[in-house]
Amino acid sequence: MRLLYTLAWWLALPLVLARLWLRGRQEPGYRQHWGERLGFYGSKAADTPLTIWLHAVSVGETRAAEPLVDALLAAWPDCRIVLTHMTPTGRATGKALFAKHGARLVQSYLPYDTGAMPARFIRHFAPKICILMETEVWPNLIHQCNRHQVPVVLANARLSQRSLAKAQRLGKLILDAARGITLVAAQTPDDAARVRQLGVREVVVTGSIKFDVVVPEAALATGARLRSAIGTRPVLLCASTREGEEELILDAYQRSGLPAHALLLIVPRHPQRFDEVEKLVASRGLAVQRRSALHGDAVISPSTQVLLGDSMGEMFAYYAACDCAFVGGSLLPLGGQNLIEPAALGKPVLIGQHTFNFALVTEQAIAAGGAVLVLDADALMAQAASLLQDPVRLADMGARALAFAAQHRGATPRTIAAIKPLLPG
Length: 425
Fold this sequence. Notes:
Layout: H1 2-23, H2 34-37, E1 50-55, H3 59-64, H4 66-75, E2 79-85, H5 88-98, E3 105-109, H6 116-125, E4 129-133, H7 139-147, E5 152-157, H8 161-170, H9 172-179, E6 183-186, H10 189-197, E7 203-205, H11 217-230, E8 235-241, H12 245-255, E9 263-268, H13 274-283, E10 288-290, E11 306-308, H14 315-321, E12 324-327, H15 340-344, E13 349-351, H16 359-367, E14 371-373, H17 377-388, H18 391-407, H19 411-419
Parallel strand pairs: 1-2, 1-4, 2-3, 4-5, 5-6, 6-7, 8-9, 8-12, 9-11, 10-11, 12-13, 13-14
Helix pairs in contact: 4-19, 7-9, 11-14, 12-17
């Protein structure tokens, strides 16, 4: 089965590269570092006593990996981390987050899963362990790690019932890959039970590393400057919105009972959609300003109704600047996004009903009183209007969100403890 999978990869490779080039029209990063995606790296990597390979596919996984990266570098002072990604936005996020580590962390794109390409990566960097963040399972990559005696760890792992069913439909290919994983550190007992159904032998429950993310002081300072530019107006943030959601939000906003002077702050999840979302706002006759246009002591015009968050790496700043936050990807059946970040900043959280990628953490946040489920965009605006006009309830819900986030910290040291037996020193 894996041989057919490998053949399919080689046959599809011209189309994959063509798609990469086309995506580069909107995101130039897709046209860079192609050699890394094909497993070519030039001169041999510098020798180091211990290389740890950590894969974080895109922005969310990269930000979630921050506490783990810091803990790995502290636990193994002589180690180097090779951090791989699949997207330019993930790579840019990693560059911004981990510049502080200098030469101890290098970045690369993940080689395509053809078999030969992951093998070249392993021979070049000689990692002693491969740590995949969350849900990444690549059959040839895992096979090559097994062949080169590199333990494979799936960290901060989550597996929804839907993803389990999909994996089981793929049959022997995924089941064999799962059996090649040395250790899974699962977020929840339910995730662990589903992972075991795939045949992974060693599974531990560590919790979600995302609770351990420390809000950078620089992000708080940026958020404070942004809030100063907004002034005293109440702010509803719609964060990490996905295609199709902005239309629903904007239409509901125009029908809503939000305070007339309230500011709607929209931050699309994917940067290539910034211009598209601006056009959606303008087409409804709403006054819009872009975050990227704010320089120095510039302020948000009182007539601005919608502020478009069109910057990268500033999500914490946006959360810091708002009064309450809706977490996108949840109004439509897209699985939702991480609500831990706004909770960690003490912001009341609103979230739609489609949260299958974050089901347990959403249920826990709602039960703790730090989040409210909204069934549609009109309900979102109604809840936001109620909160923004009730300072006591707004403050209480924010305090509950903060307490919820604090209660669940500690996944990072548990993950390090699980990994230690697999590494020397």
